[in-house]
Amino acid sequence: MTPFVDSSKLRGDAEAIRRRADRDGYLYLRGIVDEEAVLEARRDIAGVLQEVGWIDAGTDPDEAITSHPPHVSGEPEFSPVYDRVQLLESFHTLAHDEAILEVIEHLLGDDVLLQPSNIARFIFPTNLEQTTPAHQDFVHIQGTPDVWSAWLPLGDCPHLMGGLSVLSGSHKFGVLPVSRSLGAGGLRAHFEKIGGEWVSSPFENGDILFFHSHTVHRGLPNLSGNRLRLSVDFRYQRASDPVMDKVLTPHQGRLSWEEVYRGWKSDRYQYHWKRFELTPVEKVPVEVVNETP
Fold it and tell me: CA geometry: angle at 132 spanning 128 and 138, to 5°?
């Protein structure tokens, strides 16, 4: 597969960043995120997963070695574990990394809103049929199309562990038809008629991928054999644009922010979105097609 275009050298040049993002619908930058902050979030998440048996007892939790049967969102066994991860301060704090915000401000301006519904993902190596299908984020998050997602693995992510792939330039074709699918989100975008090239690269700790809400992207299968792939999704928009009400709650909606913040050591990032006068909107039902157009 063709590698991502590396935009690391454009860092600090807002005009060049915007031109590249407009051309490709994504930005791939190497080594810009605080590596220790990434590893702290990884350690905390892995600690939870080892406590519940999803990472093998007696192994280094940082290695995320698993022989446990796979679990995915929507299963009764998944929800209580995921909610424990949603309580972690290090996970939410990572979304405020200065280097991430610098790039986002180049793209969106100064009134950046981090959608507080941050997402953690744990991808098992033995559940390939649940690999995230090709999709666009907009159908899930709505509000304004001008949302940029930041995807980063928590630690190194060689091709063997999968990672993410992007259909370069696909953001220029608007919202595509969708059908039901296995994998995160449960919807697959029908991109076949728009052409374009799928691109991907291995990630090292501190690397990050940004992409527009109309950019078609997909997960790649975790072929490591025995290691969980841990990653996070953070999403950013202008505070002056409409924001879907559901992304102002903890992801998956089972917890309150009071519950999330109860054990935190700092209040620096708590309720960070409340400093803005936001325009929340409800989610509009998505039309699902029954077969490939």
Answer: 175
* Digit-coded pLDDT (tens) for 200-212: 999 999 999 999 9
8-281 placed in CATH 3.30.310.50: no
Within 8 A by CB and 6+ apart from 56, the residues are: 50, 65, 66, 67, 68
19 three-class SS: helix
Q: Is the Cβ–Cβ distance between 7 and 17 less than 8 Å?
A: yes
| Cβ contact 278:243 at 8 Å | yes
Token output for 233:
């999704």
**Is 136 in contact with 26 (CB distance < 8 Å)?**
no
46-82 burial, b if ≥16 CB within 10 A, otherwise e? bebbbeeebbbeeeebbebbbeeebbebeeeebeebb
pLDDT at position 9 over 60: yes
Q: Which of 16, 207, 175 is nearest to 97 (CA)?
A: 207
> What is the pTM (predicted TM-score) of this model?
0.97
pLDDT at 291: 56
Q: What is the DSSP letter of 277?
A: -
Strand intervals (E) in the chain:
26-29, 112-123, 148-153, 163-168, 178-180, 187-189, 197-199, 208-212, 217-220, 229-238, 242-244, 279-281
Q: What's the gap between Cα 59 and its chain centre?
A: 27
- Sign of the CA dihedral 231, 72, 86, 218? positive
Residue 9 CB-density burial (10 A; 0-12 exposed, 13-18 middle, 19+ buried): exposed
The answer to whether the CB of 147 falls within 8 A of the CB of 107 is no
